[in-house]
Amino acid sequence: MTEAFADVNGITVCYSIQGEGFPLILLHGFGSKKESFMAQIPDLSRHFKVITIDMRGAGKSSRPNYHYTIDMFADDVKGLMDHLKIDNAHLVGFSFGGIIATSFVLKYPSYVAKLILINTSGLMKVPKEYDPEPYIQFRIKGLELIKSDPVKAFWQSTQLGFPQEFREEMFANPKKKFHGLWSVEDLIEYYATDPPTPQDIRNVAYSFKTLDFSDRFHEIKHETLLLTATHDVLVPKERMFAMNKLLSNSKIKVIEKAGHESPKSNAPDVNNAILEFL
User: Fold this and answer.
1) Which residue among 23, 162, 177, 195 is least crowded, i.e. fewest CB within 10 A of its CB?
2) Is the whole-model pTM more than 0.90?
3) Are 61 and 55 in contact (CB under 8 A)?
4) Which residues partner with 49 through β-bridges?
5) Largest CA distance in the chain
6) In what order do the strands lie in the sheet with 89-94?
7) How far apart are CA 129 and CA 137, in angstroms?
8) Is the domain 3-277 a CATH 3.40.50.1820 member?
9) Across the strands, what pairs with 15?
10) In contact, 63 and 15? CB cutoff 8 Å
11) pLDDT digits 0-9 by tens, 193-224
């Protein structure tokens, strides 16, 4: 993966481009980075110019020490598109990246062709009195475990990302290349490389307090694909079905026998759904 850097909105953004054709931008989840789409890039880049981004506070992009807002993330995507002279692209957002994608399409609708939201929910209005500190402390404990025992930390994280049956297969075959794309050993290395710091977790988490577009879904007229998973405990499929009712030009597809990390565990199903939609 060839990386490049762009100065955007007073920070430096690290990004990667693979493939040729119409631009397809992939936005990663909370505490993650652009490599999280390791199971999507090979398939999608055969048809599109795939652009992955380390959002601010993640990967190799700048990690300024102040509380972020959802708008900042959307503006960073817009800034990178301007840097690359892209005025229209398909947009894919996974988990927290889906919230960023929703914010982006509301703020810069003409820059988006089609929208794909995976295991995400922007269908909420976070009250001003919301305190993100309990969630921050939970995530910081996970970071401490990554430093002391990355293997144990990885397996703990899989409890929320993968169904039990798939976890058992992963545990029994840590060297197996699932779908020919990734192995457990690859994921352990991925989680241990350039992880967020407690400062990053806090600054990104405080952006939750700026999340408030639940009553604006009717403004999104773009063709939208919602991908949800049967066993997602972080974003239950009912939330995405509720979004489907509010997005007038959307359709929803359920990925069977999958959890929150369906883009990895069920990569062929997810990738085919994206390609068929686009």
Assistant:
1) 177
2) yes
3) yes
4) 23
5) 48
6) 3-8, 11-18, 49-54, 23-27, 89-94, 112-118, 224-229, 250-255
7) 18
8) yes
9) 4, 53
10) no
11) 999 999 999 999 999 988 888 788 889 999 99
